[in-house]
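Checked the freezer inventory, then went back to the computational side. Two predictions to log before the end of the day. The first one is the construct we discussed on Monday; recording sequence and tokens without edits.
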Amino acid sequence: MEKIAILVDSGSDLSQALIERLGIRALPLKILYDDGEYLDGVNIEPQLVYERFPGQIPKTSTPNFAEITEAAESLKAEGYNRILAVCISSGLSSTYQNVCAALSEVEGVESHVVDTKNISIGAGVLAIHAAMLIKRGLSFSEVCANVESNIENSRIFYYMDTLDYLRAGGRIGRVTGVIGSLLNIKPIISCNKQGIYHTVSMIRGQKRGLKKLLECVAEHCDAHRETFLAVMHGSAPEVAHEVVGQLRQLYPKAQILLEKQINASLAVHTGPGLIGILLFQPA
């Protein structure tokens, strides 16, 4: 019989409550300061990252081969013979490549690794979706195929208060590199089909930026389909809560999965003031 495990990296930004409720396993990304190495969500919280800005901008790294293999062997010891790994975009991180390499060496377990071409809950929602499919009794091959077919149905739009940290981390992608800070111009960014950051719009001021964020969701939302939403923030809980309220009014039938501070590994590259909205409409 198939016993299917779901493995994610902490860049998927799932809450601990969801991880526990759905039985998902998370591999922590690493945050590297001069004073040591921290594990995302284990011994470092996002607030520490913000407190050290702007004087200290750490680097991040992915789980290594041994750590991924250890996680897989642990799942195998618990009786799992299938592993579905859901990873953040290969265009933004080497996590996907590392997981592919490590799982291919684990004997006695069939595995499938998904390159979500997305980041944060834009990747994590596919793991949530997979868990729901498993509970419905779908086979491993069916779950894998369904998740792959829904990659493009997961969209996340971010209002960025600053691009300084994306630039510092070398993850600027196709996002406009020069911002008129004196003019208070802010970007709305998303991931393109290649899983690389790109500019959706340039807006002057936070108020207009948040309005445009909602417009981006509306442009891609099909009112006749099942809809899942989430709101992520970077040290901006009050603003995020206001956005959730607006979404509840605009989409009363939608299920709001999360209202959450982004994890430390993502805070490193985005800085404070970020607001993100996920739209997921599975086929």
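The second is the one RB wanted added to the comparison set:
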Amino acid sequence: MFRLWAKIFAENRMVKDTVICNDADDTRTHKVMNALERVCYDFDLGKPVWLDVNIRDFKRHAKVRFYQDNFIENIEFDFLEIQVIEED
């Protein structure tokens, strides 16, 4: 079981969250990208751009924050955080 927790923060408070589960027999990268796509659809967001710092943080901590710099359109929150909470 692969589970990814996505949270939106505004003014130091979590305003939205969701957990995406995936049982597919796929690579970790594909599971993360598919989960992020679902999160963006559920939260009605454009997909964030992965910068080098985001990739490095995600590899190191299984957690990453996407700020305004990662989005093409303006966002009405401080950041989107995703975190892998369970994987096989």
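For RB: Helices lie at 28-42, 52-61. The two ends are 6 Å apart (CA to CA). Let me know if you want it refolded.
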